[in-house]
Amino acid sequence: MSNPQVVVHRDGDLLAAAAAARLVTRIVDAQAARGSASVVLTGGRTGTAVLEHLNRNAARDAVDWSRVDLFWGDERFLPSGHAERNETQARAALLDHVSVDPSRVHVMEPSDGKFGDDPEAAAAEYASLLASLARPEDHGDVPSFDVCMLGVGEEGHVASVFPDSPAVHEKERSVVAVRNCPKPPPTRVSLTLASVRSAQEVWLMTTGEAKAAAVAMALDGAGEVQLPAAGARGRRRTLWLLDSAAASAVPALFKPPLA
Ligand SMILES: O=C1O[C@H](COP(=O)(O)O)[C@@H](O)[C@H](O)[C@H]1O
């Protein structure tokens, strides 16, 4: 597992633009090396802003979108097309505007989908999907995603893994249903931290003063049960992409030396 690196941008808009550019490069490189790329999308304001920037960036068309597998780190368990679903927001921000292969857009089932109001069944199906796509070299039942993007909550949640919740204690399943979530909506489906750690690169992206304490604690050695973001690490790279407000309490160790 990799140690965290921190990149600070002046403000949230610049962070989103820079992360979008970084994502294009990562996907293009993976496609050049292997023919395809796999990306885990995140919900939330920063994750959606990254996709909006990507959609406006001319470099968007350097990607062959038909050869990208898209997954979600978590989903709000709501009816299909609901404005608060992470899928709905990602489609509006980017996916409706590029030539994705629908069979490679791996959504988590909605609450009016084939399992009805059964988030446990939706989670189990997503776990089976991940297992079916994992290759022997992934050494487990989850693919080694090229990039897993995550937002970070004020209390340190990532995906829908909240502090001291059943999801953060989960040791067997790769995808879980989340009930009684402290942030609305209360029912969700989420990758576990172990699944996040299957990714080659994990990018934790967040902005604003309200996130500064959680960011600082995660980087300063907090445990993942109290602060799930601390347990989100990539196999090869863990990047914290922050604006200056979210980075305001980052320990000095992570600040680049002055030139
Ligand atoms: O509810 C969620 O929130 C987090 C963080 O969102 P933000 O708006 O504070 O950036 C997000 O990462 C997660 O995917 C989403 O379901």
Automatic annotation (TrEMBL):
<protein>
    <recommendedName>
        <fullName>6-phosphogluconolactonase</fullName>
        <ecNumber>3.1.1.31</ecNumber>
    </recommendedName>
</protein>
<dbReference type="InterPro" id="IPR005900">
    <property type="entry name" value="6-phosphogluconolactonase_DevB"/>
</dbReference>
<feature type="domain" description="Glucosamine/galactosamine-6-phosphate isomerase">
    <location>
        <begin position="11"/>
        <end position="240"/>
    </location>
</feature>
<dbReference type="InterPro" id="IPR006148">
    <property type="entry name" value="Glc/Gal-6P_isomerase"/>
</dbReference>
<dbReference type="Pfam" id="PF01182">
    <property type="entry name" value="Glucosamine_iso"/>
</dbReference>
<dbReference type="InterPro" id="IPR039104">
    <property type="entry name" value="6PGL"/>
</dbReference>
<comment type="function">
    <text>Hydrolysis of 6-phosphogluconolactone to 6-phosphogluconate.</text>
</comment>
<dbReference type="InterPro" id="IPR037171">
    <property type="entry name" value="NagB/RpiA_transferase-like"/>
</dbReference>
<comment type="pathway">
    <text>Carbohydrate degradation; pentose phosphate pathway; D-ribulose 5-phosphate from D-glucose 6-phosphate (oxidative stage): step 2/3.</text>
</comment>
<keyword id="KW-0378">Hydrolase</keyword>
<comment type="similarity">
    <text>Belongs to the glucosamine/galactosamine-6-phosphate isomerase family. 6-phosphogluconolactonase subfamily.</text>
</comment>
